Amino acid sequence: MTRPDTIRKELSKRLLSRLSTWRDAAGWRIAFSGGLDSTVLLHLLADLAQHHRLPPLSAVHVHHGLQAVAASWPGHCRQMCQILGVPFQVIEVQVRPGASLEQAARDARYAAFDEVLLPGEVLLAAQHRDDQAETLMFRLLRGAGVKGLAAMPAQRVLGRGHLFRPLLDEPRALLEAYAKEQGLSWIEDPSNKDTRFSRNYLRNHVLPMLTARWPQAIASFNRSAAHLAEAQGLLDELALQDLAQAEIPCPWPWLNVPSLELAPLEALSDARQRNALRHWLGPLTRLPDSDHWAGWNSLRDAGPDGRPIWRLADGQLHRAEGRIWWLSGIWLKDVAGSQHWSMASQPLHLPGNGMLEILGEIPRGGLHVHYRQGGEVLDVPDRGRRDLKRLLNEKGVPVFLRGRLPLLYRGEQLLAVANLPGLDADPRGDWRLHWQPPTNDHSLR
User: Tens digit of pLDDT for each residue in 30-59?
Assistant: First the structure.
């Protein structure tokens, strides 16, 4: 039988080795639920901090309030942290109702961690080898692709910092042995036995049956997840190579809307197209499963006069002027109306549409700003009066942008169209109309 001090020394040594990459982090925050796994991680780190120079330690407990019994958990966690001398913080969250309570609680928890992490800090989570096997099985049953079957990554970006799982290669049995030998107490969540939840069913029924027949099942699942993670890494590298061919700057450098040139994507096989788009759209929106990509095919194959749109969970993909454009948030809301610009020497804030300013000598007369309604004409130097729609066609302005371009009027006369060379200034060059479009945080997250 392994001696208690041997378990502690072995775990501490492996933990310190895995954390070596993060020794210069601004701080280590421990995701502390009070359960077995996070209790062991907290105890190990507090012990290591007594003998090694580590980043500042602190613990974060997310209180969901989903069970009456959970009301006592923050107090238990606070007492444990006081004993170990680790600063402690409780964050209360509201779990949005939905089809999956498990997923909703997880989303709320990681959103809280995302908010609390400061630049350069690392959130240390205590998921272990059994959790990884469980995740792989759960995602396999849901028909996940390579990325999903890679299960939980050991590390990833989270908010302004990083998430790291230093116990992912350790079996739960070893963590429980450590906790018992060290005399630790932890919270037993009664909901973990509720097999109406899919993960609990796998944990309490399926995995024990599999390991009874194949004792190495959990280790094998983890090995498969590692192989799939490596395969996903190769797919990511391929996506970056393919996207590099499509990331040709758009003609409007002031337009802060993510976009790609379509032709290089069309030259790829269907599988490589989907791989590249998953990589590009992943930070922008939740993606459909493999059975619901018909929207991409329709957008890609639309005729040159078409205006196809692929509607996704968090926004829309538009096709215009040989490019695809990602629109979400404020870019999906129409702008309308007019504004008098009595103080044209000052920037004009456009509701839901950024800011407008005149650079140079301010033109005389009562100025006001409109948006396109149709039928507008503009005097163009050396060309005379021209229909605005035709001018926008000549400039190759995407359809989604045309209704947002601010138009400067003096009385009934259209003087300029913001940001379009040749249309945004007076003929003598005394002034120019400059528009700063709205920043769409959802498109740039």
Answer: 999 999 999 999 999 999 999 999 999 999
Interatomic CA distance for residues 119 and 122, integer angstroms? 9
Residue 443 labeled ligand binder: no
- Looking at the DSSP bridge assignments, the partners of residue 29 are 58, 123
Scanning the structure block, which residue is given the tokens 């190990």?
44
Q: What are the contacts of 295-300 at 24+ separation with CB within 8 A?
A: 299/324, 300/262, 300/265, 300/266, 300/273
Q: Please indicate if the annotation marks 34 as binding a ligand.
A: yes
Q: Looking at residues 85-103, what average pLDDT do you find?
A: 83
Domains, in order of start, for the chain: 4-231 (3.40.50.620), 247-327 (3.30.465.60), 339-444 (no CATH)
Cα–Cα distance measured from residue 18 to residue 30, given in angstroms and rounded to the nearest whole number: 15
Q: What is the pLDDT of residues 288-302, one digit of tens each?
A: 887 789 999 999 999
33 is in an annotated binding site: yes
Is 36 annotated as contributing to ligand binding? yes
Q: How far apart are CA 83 and CA 76, in angstroms?
A: 11
Tokens of 292: 């619901």
Give the DSSP H/E element, type plus range, for residue 42. Answer: helix 36-49
Whole-number Å distance between alpha carbons of 14 and 169: 10
